[in-house]
């Protein structure tokens, strides 16, 4: 398949081709023609780009591979709009342009050589960012001193903070890099950026961050965004979960054109922003649902823990009650054994019962609380304590009791007290040879 024939050059294009070859020193006419065609036959822009390539500055049409940055600038779908300077018109304009071209070429060449040499002598102070917020605030103050306070609202924070806020709020972020020494900067700031329609549009539609490239913070952002000329504007937004440059506007742009270009960029990327909003809402809803599920789980867990705690407390209380009951039973058993042992001891210590024909004996019938009767003989000379010990040794007798006479009713002092440490004898108690005594149960008392 034959290669397509190249289009013939017009006389004006041929003249520009020869001028470009003379100014750049390139020997290949094909390379000169390709470079001019890439710049729409703008000889000044083509010469400047060629000089930038010789200094190692990346070309507009051959950018270096992207570096890892905070903002994705490697998206090939980035919309780029470059406004070239108007070409001279008429014989007088071309004459002035050709006369000034050698001087401009010499000036920029010497300036670039001087800057290149200065890098070896003294490192660029902009390479160290020590106070990024101070750099931004200083630029804002100098901007207002020169152009007044009628301007879009500047974001008073670092570039990273502006990116984070735009990402969090899902808003467009417009970045403006201010070139102090560029010939179009002053006209752009006065006649475009500070016009009422532009500042109203920017203030209502997006965040706006700006800084001078003469400041370390602005220079750092300049290295990240790799602008080619000034004025430079970049539109950044959250796209595919990354802060991405979606539009680049370079050159002296007019207010109406600027608004149209920004509108075009925003409309072209609005779907991505809406998608991010929907995804964020979905993530938030998922997070809220998960949080509610976690709260419900925690509430259920706390309820189960409380139930287990109450169950353990009930079990512990039941165990303690059973233990107390067991201890009470053991204590009662010990008490009963002790009582039985005491009764047996008392029984063994009782004096023998006197015979029936003993003139000093007393026959006593005891009526117990369970309506049983017990009869035994005692001696008049024996203490009432013997009567008490006898009754105590009986199994039918309650643990605590007192002995009461019927007529007259009185309680016999059978046990020693502080007032009467030695209880009286049966005779001293006034008992006759035959008596009926009642045993009164005092256990409840």
UniProtKB/TrEMBL annotation:
Stored SMART domains: UAS
CC annotations in GO: endoplasmic reticulum; lipid droplet
Region feature Disordered, mapped onto this chain: 300-362
KW Coiled coil (keyword) present: yes
Sequence ranges of Basic and acidic residues compositional bias: 303-348
PANTHER family: FAS-ASSOCIATED FACTOR 2, FAS-ASSOCIATED PROTEIN
Domain UBX: 357-439
Principal localisation: cytoplasm
GO molecular function annotation: ubiquitin binding
Organism: Denticeps clupeoides
Lineage: Eukaryota, Metazoa, Chordata, Craniata, Vertebrata
Gene field: FAF2
Signal sequence, renumbered to the chain: none
Subcellular location: Cytoplasm; Endoplasmic reticulum; Lipid droplet
Keywords: Coiled coil, Cytoplasm, Endoplasmic reticulum, Lipid droplet
InterPro entries membership: FAF1_2-like_UAS, Thioredoxin-like_sf, UAS, UBA_8, Ubiquitin-like_domsf, UBX_dom, UBX_domain-protein
GO biological process: ERAD pathway
Record protein name field: UBX domain-containing protein
Pfam families assigned: FAF1, UBA_8, UBX
């Amino acid at each position: 398949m034959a290669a397509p024939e190249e289009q013939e050059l017009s006389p004006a294009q041929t003249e520009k081709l020869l001028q470009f070859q003379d100014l750049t020193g390139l020997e290949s006419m094909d390379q000169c023609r390709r470079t001019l065609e890439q710049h729409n036959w703008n000889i000044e822009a083509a010469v400047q780009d060629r000089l930038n390539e010789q200094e190692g500055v990346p070309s507009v049409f051959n950018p270096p591979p992207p570096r890892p940055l905070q903002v994705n600038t490697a998206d090939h779908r980035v919309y780029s709009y470059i406004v070239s300077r108007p070409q001279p018109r008429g014989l007088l304009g071309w004459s002035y342009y050709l006369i000034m071209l050698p001087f401009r070429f010499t000036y920029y060449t010497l300036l670039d050589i001087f800057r290149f040499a200065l890098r070896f002598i003294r490192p660029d102070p902009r390479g160290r960012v020590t106070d990024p917020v101070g750099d931004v605030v200083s630029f804002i103050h100098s901007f207002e001193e020169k152009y007044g306070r009628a301007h879009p609202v500047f974001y008073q924070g670092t570039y990273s903070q502006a990116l984070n806020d735009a990402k969090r709020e899902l808003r467009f972020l417009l970045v403006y890099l201010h070139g102090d020494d560029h010939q179009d900067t002053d006209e752009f700031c006065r006649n475009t950026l500070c016009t009422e329609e532009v500042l109203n549009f920017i203030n209502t539609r997006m965040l706006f961050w700006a800084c001078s490239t003469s400041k370390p913070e602005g220079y750092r952002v300049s290295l990240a965004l790799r602008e080619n000329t000034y004025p430079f504007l970049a539109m950044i937004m959250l796209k595919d979960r990354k802060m991405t440059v979606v539009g680049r506007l370079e050159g002296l742009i007019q207010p109406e054109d600027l608004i149209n270009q920004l509108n075009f960029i925003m409309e072209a990327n609005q779907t991505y922003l809406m998608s991010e909003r929907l995804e964020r809402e979905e993530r938030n809803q998922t997070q809220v649902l998960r949080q509610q599920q976690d709260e419900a789980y925690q509430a259920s867990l706390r309820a189960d823990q409380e139930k287990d705690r109450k169950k353990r407390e009930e079990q512990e209380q039941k165990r303690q009650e059973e233990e107390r009951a067991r201890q009470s039973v053991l204590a009662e058993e010990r008490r009963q054994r002790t009582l039985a042992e005491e009764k047996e001891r008392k029984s063994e210590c009782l004096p023998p019962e006197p015979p029936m024909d003993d003139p000093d004996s007393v026959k006593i019938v005891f009526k117990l609380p369970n309506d049983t009767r017990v009869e035994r003989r005692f001696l008049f000379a024996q203490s009432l304590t013997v009567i008490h010990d006898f009754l105590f040794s009986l199994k039918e007798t309650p643990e605590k009791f007192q002995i009461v006479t019927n007529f007259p009713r009185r309680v016999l002092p059978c046990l020693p007290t502080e007032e009467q440490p030695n209880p009286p004898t049966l005779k001293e108690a006034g008992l006759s040879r035959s008596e009926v005594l009642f045993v009164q149960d005092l256990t409840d008392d």
